[in-house]
Structures are given as structure tokens and as C-alpha cells.
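Session log. Operator J.P. requested a structure for one protein chain; no other inputs attached. Running the standard single-chain path with C-alpha cell output.
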Amino acid sequence: MTTQKFTIGLVQTACLPDTDANLRNAAEKVREAAGRGAQIVCLQELFRSQYFCREEDAKYFDLAEPVPGPSTEALSAVARECGVVIVASLFERRAAGVYHNTAAILGTSGELLGMYRKMHIPDDPLYFEKFYFTPGDLGFRNFDTPFGRMATLVCWDQWYPEAARLAALGGAQIVFYPTAIGWHPSEKAQHGAAQHDAWRTIQRAHAIANGVYVAAVNRVGFEGPPERGLEFWGGSFVADPFGQVIAEASHDREEILIVECDPARSEEVRRNWPFLRDRRIDAYAPIVNRFLD
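Structure written below.
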């Protein structure tokens, strides 16, 4: 595990119906991020298409691809060209009828360092992900890169403290959250500010509780019909190991955040706020139950 500073890039974009255009845009944004000093670049959740989970329609299974596959092949070339690590969130076709929401981690030589399959799958209005995705079966994983040890979780995972804790216990120096989250038009006026604040707060809390950097990257733009669409709220951000937001994107523009992360900051925070030291691991067995009746 490196103790050297490393620089990350978060790519916040709007997605078009043209999947190839989205892939080209992502590749160009990775190159731009690398040119600005990024060493690990994270793309938003399911960056290659618009967010198809707004409806349940079997035709969208045609968007899925194997991993390795066309998207990883294209991005591996960019990773190799730029000497960066890329976190790419994809609709994985594992087998006929078995699909996952998967983050592929590509190394600086273009190699596939590994995959994380989204563990927590939501089923909410306009987020009908259980129709498409099989829950992940790879567990909560960490990946060693030339720049630092990292973990990635995906969107709905960001609401679960257990997931972030396991990433930290595995040695992650930073946790990435590729995301696709937005406002329902009918709810934005009344609940929008509170919804965004809750999303931001829960992830800052993961940084504080675990003494790690947290990086969330979301999409922007309106997708779908006016009455049944989603306005993705962007707001990609990075929180340091004490939860301070050190960089944040807008709600409505494509942006690339470039942020330097210093592992010494985790050391400093954990020495003064030793939450991991004081955990009562002898008393936590009940947490594996669904509910304590």
C-alpha cells in the first residue's frame, strides 16, 4: 500500500441515446483528466447509455455486454495510452439471463485488475433495477493500483455503512461510488434539497466513520419524458477522511474534478479519531440478522 499522494479524476457527463457517442465522450474525458494530472479516473454509473432502469422493458437487455468486452477493450487502450487506472461502470452480460451492474477496474497497462458487482439492488419508482440486475456475488473487494489501494461500490451501495466499513477494513485508501441519481420532477420542489443533502451526508459519514477518502461521481441532464423522467443532479464530490468536501461539481454541467489525495491525512485522522481501534467486534454478531425480532 503506497503512502505517496495520488490524484484522482471524476468524470461527470450527460448521456445521449447514442451509446457509441457516450463511449467516445468518456474516452476523451479520461484523456483530459489524465492530461490534468489524474492517475485514477472514475466514470459515472452505467456511463455508456442513458439510465434505462426508469422502465421495465426486456429490449434494454440488448445494451449489456461481456466483461471483458467492447467497452473495456476501448477503455483499456486509453488506460494504456495515458498510464492511468480507470473505473468503468458497465451493464455486464454474464450469461443468458444473468446480468450485473458491474464496475471494471482497468490498470495502467490496459489489464483488467478486477471487477466489483453491485451488491445492493434498488427497486423504487423510476429505479427498477431488480428487473435487470442480479445481486453481486464477488463480495466487497479492494484493488491495488500503482497509485494506492482502492475500493469501488456502486450507487445504491452508498447508503449502506456496512459496505463502506468492509471496504475500509480491506485497506482501501479511497472508496469510489459511480452513481446515477436524480430528482423526480414532481418531487423536486418539495423534497429535492433534502434528498440531495441526504445523499451527500451519508457519503461524508462513510468518510468520517472509516477515515478514508470518498469520491462520488454522478451524471447530469434530464432523461426520459417530461412527466416520467429523471433530472440527474450531478454534484459529484470528494470528501477527505474527516468528511470535509474538498471538491464538488455543479448540478447541471459536464465537469471533471481533479483532486489530490494524501494517505497521510487518513493516518492523521485515524490517530485522533480511532474509530477502527475502538470497534467492539465481539459484540456485533447480531448485525448479520435481517432484523432483531
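Operator note: The mean pLDDT is 97.
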